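Q: For a teaching handout, I want to show students what a protein-ligand complex looks like in token form. Below are the inputs, and the small molecule is iron/sulfur cluster. Please produce the holo structure.
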Amino acid sequence: MTSDTRVQGGAREVAPLSADPPDLDRSCGSCTLCCRVLEIQALNKPAGVLCRHNTGTGCGIYPKRPETCARWHCLWRRINALPDTLRPDRSGVMYSLDSRSPTADAPDAACIVGRAVHDDRDFDRPETVEAFAMFVREGSFPVWKVSERGAFLVHPGL
Ligand code: SF4
Ligand code: SF4
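A: Here is the structure, written as tokens, with iron/sulfur cluster included.
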């Protein structure tokens, strides 16, 4: 499991739940949001700062990118049921499956986190509201919203 990613707007480092690259039908296209949002310790890259290897459309060191980059995928990449409009660069919200809660004062548990990267008003888009509702209906994991305003538990999980 990788453990050297952190995220802008969250109080704690992100610990991805699975290190196994999933079978992915989707590609990132022109989205490079996680290259800005995540902290990549292997590159000494802080959260919220665009990686120096980002070309604007992709990764300039793709064959040699850190393991963290190779293994980490947002939930839009992993879940085809999420519509194209929810690609993080389009929606402003990046979903991830994390191995622990985004705040230190909450019990640690695997959880789904939706992070508003620019503006928490992006949480109000209808497709984003529906995505949170989908995760809540599924119900297995706690669901969190994280933005510059902090981390809020939307659903406690089972
Ligand atoms: S946020 Fe998701 S879609 Fe965007 S570059 Fe990262 S993995 Fe790809
Ligand atoms: S090394 Fe490549 S994939 Fe990793 S954060 Fe930098 S630009 Fe993105």
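A: Two things your students might notice: The mean pLDDT is 84. Helices lie at 34-37, 67-71, 75-78, 88-91, 126-138.
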